[in-house]
From TrEMBL:
GO terms for molecular function: catalytic activity. It comes from Leucocoprinus leucothites. Signal peptide: none annotated. The lineage of its organism: Eukaryota, Fungi, Dikarya, Basidiomycota, Agaricomycotina. SUPFAM superfamilies: CoA-transferase family III (CaiB/BaiF). Belongs to the CoA-transferase III family. InterPro entries: CoA-trans_III_biosynth/detox (IPR052985), CoA-Trfase_fam_III (IPR003673), CoA-Trfase_III_dom_1_sf (IPR023606). This is CoA-transferase family III. Gene3D superfamilies: Crotonobetainyl-coa:carnitine coa-transferase, domain 1. It holds the Pfam family CoA_transf_3.
Length: 577
């Protein structure tokens, strides 16, 4: 009998859930009762992985969703006094969490126009519902190849590899490298655009380029490290004590233990977070996912955006469920006053912008803690960054690809395919998984506030998840990976194959092999009251067997600036006017 005969994604997920999360020595302060609650979790699904990547994505996402379920179970027991609920996770279904914005099945008006939720050749149908707010035109079919190639991994003159990132505007990174964008706007292919960057980056050495990008131009970028190199780095060591998140208590003698304010006949185990108010200062994927997960459990969310701030409209449908959306221009004192008013009546604030951006406008960690100091109950302030909140790189800008590259995840993916070079893993795995970890951290902090009083700060970081993926989750055993890779023809991607290459390739592979990723049973037709149409999307991953908890959203996703920036009296109000 071989490992192929005995391997089980479900058994491995359960082991990871218990030993890699619940009993992980880096997680020292979980609420009491969590292991009792965890015994109500069960798993099913395909025994062997179907997602062709060496990292154990199936086990990672499934264990994290179990973690979310068990923390909610503890909250249900402590707040409502009900027994721990039986929660089931289909590990095949769970993997669709990583594909939800980009899945071909996801459509607006599925019974009618069937409008794709991700940009294709013609995105005019999507734009009717979500006007394109990508000010720098970085994420659409009209994006020039020179901009697409800006977010990529290139070999340097000293033989090292470096991940350059366009962030939300490719121009600053191109300028840092001395690339004249106008000269290359007409390039006819992605390959030719990559050649421009290859020629330029070959003239740089790793440390010099890292300083140029991060310190001089303040752009996201990183040397592609091995796992051991990152662990030995000052940044790696400064954050080695952190698990999936870190919570800091700010006690107060007059802020007594408290939950949020219940809404009569609506705050109940059925919608366990109903009445919880969250101010959402996030964009892109990781921190918006954390907020959306809390909204799915019943929380009310006010997302704050601004017309002059670029945003990825193509993500708004999937990541905007459960959120009102209001424009506030924080350059104006009147709008800052409105945001302060929202925060003063909120239980949670989540900040996902680059470190210190919100501090500039008076809404950083210290400012918000001071703002609520006189309240009778404290606040939960959560913030997410790339590198972690300790060490010399804590201030740096970063994205999922940067985290994958700096922690060694990208290099191990390349090596698994037989190339000794880093390759960015496909789909926004670390983004979505960081979002789940962030939501669990907020649930944990809410439980602690109800027991200890005061305020709590939740540190969330892409690297916290990536460190856990490397150290606790890991890659598939060689025999399992060889079988998995062989099923897809032993494809090979190279360092310059960014997600514009790999996502379409993976989607095609998963579809052609008729994998569970294309199982219609994992999708639902969901009403979107804000848009006035139905949407086909991935079902909630957690299944509460007794049916006492109903996951879903109080309101539908909508374009930026739809709502007035105030909390409505009725938290089921679809659009605030």
């Amino acid at each position: 009998m071989t490992l192929l005969d005995t391997y089980s994604v479900q058994k491995e997920t359960e082991a990871l859930f218990w030993e890699g999360i619940l009993r992980n020595p880096l997680h020292r302060s979980f609420p009491d009762g969590i292991e009792d609650a965890a015994r109500s979790i069960s798993f099913s699904g395909s025994k062997l992985p179907f997602f062709p990547i060496n990292w154990r994505y199936a086990e990672s996402i499934s264990a994290l969703k179990a973690f979310q379920g068990v923390m909610l179970n503890v909250l249900l027991h402590k707040k409502y006094g009900i027994p721990y609920q039986s929660i089931h996770i289909d590990t095949d279904h769970a993997q669709l969490f990583l594909m939800s914005p980009a899945h071909p099945f996801a459509t607006i008006d599925p019974e009618g126009e069937k409008i794709p939720t991700m940009y294709g050749g013609d995105h005019s149908g999507y734009d009717k519902f979500f006007p394109n707010l990508d000010i720098h035109h970085l994420a659409g079919p009209e994006t020039p190849f020179i901009d697409i190639a800006t977010t990529n991994i290139y070999k340097l003159g000293d033989g090292r590899y470096y991940h350059v990132h366009a962030s939300m505007d490719a121009n600053p990174s191109q300028k840092a490298l001395g690339i004249n964008r106008e000269k290359y706007l007409g390039l006819p292919s992605f390959k030719e655009a990559c050649s421009v960057f290859k020629e330029t980056t070959s003239k740089h050495f790793a440390q010099e380029l890292d300083t140029l990008m991060n310190d001089q131009y303040r752009q996201a970028g990183t040397i592609c490290h091995s796992i051991d190199e990152f662990r030995a780095s000052e940044q790696g060591q400064a954050n080695a004590h952190v698990g999936l998140y870190e919570i800091h208590h700010h006690p107060s003698t007059h802020q007594r233990p408290a939950w949020w304010t219940d809404v009569t006949k609506q705050t109940s185990p059925t919608r366990p977070l109903f009445g919880l108010k969250i101010v959402d200062l996030t964009r892109i994927i990781a921190s918006p996912t954390a907020v959306r997960e809390l909204a799915e459990m019943g929380a009310s969310v006010m997302r704050i955006t601004a017309p002059h701030i670029t945003d990825m409209s193509q993500l708004q449908l999937d990541l905007g469920w459960g959120k009102w959306n209001s424009h506030l221009d924080l350059r104006k004192e009147g709008d800052r006053a409105q945001l302060r008013e929202l925060i003063m009546d909120a239980d949670v604030v989540i900040d996902g912008y680059r470190p210190n951006v919100m501090k500039k406008w008076g809404f950083g960690k210290e400012e918000i803690l001071e703002m609520v100091r006189g309240r009778e109950k404290g606040i939960i302030y959560a913030h997410e960054n790339c590198y972690g909140w300790n060490g010399p790189w804590a201030h740096r800008s970063g994205w999922q690809q940067i985290s994958d590259a700096v922690t060694g995840v990208s290099l191990e993916f390349g090596r698994a395919m037989g190339v000794d070079e880093p390759v960015t893993p496909v789909f926004p795995n670390s983004d979505f998984c960081t979002g789940i970890a962030g939501a669990v951290g907020v649930l944990d902090a809410l439980i602690q506030r109800a027991e200890k009083g005061g305020s709590f700060v939740v540190d969330i970081a892409l690297n916290y998840y990536s460190q856990w993926l490397v150290s606790s989750c890991g890659t598939y055993p060689q025999e399992i990976w060889d079988d998995l890779w062989s099923r897809y023809g032993k494809f090979t991607f190279r360092s310059t194959d960014n997600m514009s290459v790999t996502i379409p390739a993976y989607t095609k592979m998963l579809s052609e092999k008729n994998t569970p990723a294309f199982n219609e049973n994992y999708f639902e037709i969901r009403k979107n009251g804000a848009l006035g149409v139905n949407v086909k999307t991935v079902k909630p991953i957690l299944r509460f067997e007794e049916g006492n908890v109903k996951l879903g959203y109080n309101v539908g996703s909508r374009p930026n600036g739809t709502d007035v920036a105030k909390w409505p009296n009725d938290l089921m109000t679809e659009i605030i006017s």
